[in-house]
């Protein structure tokens, strides 16, 4: 989804009025209660909040020219999670699709209830944060039973085309800290 993300994928950008901004902030606070203490830093009340509408029913929430959140099909529900083993991390971060053996080997974890074409967050063995988001190509049961081929299409991963234009605005220290937090051992 974001591997080759560019300005051509953007269909509209709108600065939202204060009432809509409050609703977005409230929705984010409800969805991610751990962000509430830093929400004023992430989305300052006086800063303009822009909703960027993109192809495939994707919306980005942008503050100070930095995309902070996105949702697909107006549904910000928490995704089911799959976990890949340590050996798959470098491939996932290069944009590769998630192969079945990386999900079924020791270190991999599947949510057995996930069906085909379901969005999932891709976690990594020993890591706290998701490193990618994708859509399942087969059900979790099929991934486990077949154990061959692509299990999840990698749609967005750390440092892909969505990240790159805005990473420079974060500053070197913040970039390295963010990537370190995601990739380092707990």
UniProtKB/TrEMBL annotation:
Keyword Cytoplasm carried by entry: yes
One term under GO cellular component: cytoplasm
GO BP terms: formation of translation preinitiation complex
Keywords linked to the UniProt accession: Cytoplasm
SMART domains the UniProt entry points to: PUA (SM00359)
One Pfam family linked to the record: Pre-PUA
The PUA domain, residue ranges: 80-159
Entry superkingdom: Eukaryota
GO molecular function terms listed in the Swiss-Prot or TrEMBL record: RNA binding
UniProt xrefs under InterPro entries: MCT-1/Tma20 (IPR016437), Pre-PUA (IPR041366), PUA (IPR002478), PUA-like_sf (IPR015947), Uncharacterised_CHP00451 (IPR004521)
Subcellular location: Cytoplasm
Cytoplasm keyword on record: yes
Name listed for the protein in its UniProt record: PUA domain-containing protein
């Amino acid at each position: 989804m974001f591997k080759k993300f560019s300005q051509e994928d953007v269909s509209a950008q709108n600065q939202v009025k204060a009432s809509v901004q409050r609703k977005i902030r409230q929705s984010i606070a409800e969805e991610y209660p751990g962000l509430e203490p830093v929400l004023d830093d992430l989305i300052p009340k006086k800063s303009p909040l822009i909703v960027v509408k993109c192809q495939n029913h994707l919306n980005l929430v942008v503050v100070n020219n930095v995309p902070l959140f996105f949702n697909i099909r107006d549904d910000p529900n928490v995704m089911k999670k799959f976990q890949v083993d340590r050996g798959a991390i470098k491939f996932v971060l290069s944009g590769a699709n998630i192969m079945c053996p990386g999900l079924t080997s020791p270190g991999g974890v599947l949510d057995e209830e996930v069906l085909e074409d379901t969005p999932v967050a891709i976690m990594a063995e020993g890591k706290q944060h998701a490193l990618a988001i994708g859509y399942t190509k087969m059900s979790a049961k099929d991934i486990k039973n077949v154990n061959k081929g692509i299990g999840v299409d990698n749609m967005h991963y750390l440092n892909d085309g969505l990240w790159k234009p805005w990473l420079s605005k974060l500053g070197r220290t913040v970039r390295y800290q963010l990537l370190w937090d995601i990739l380092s051992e707990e």
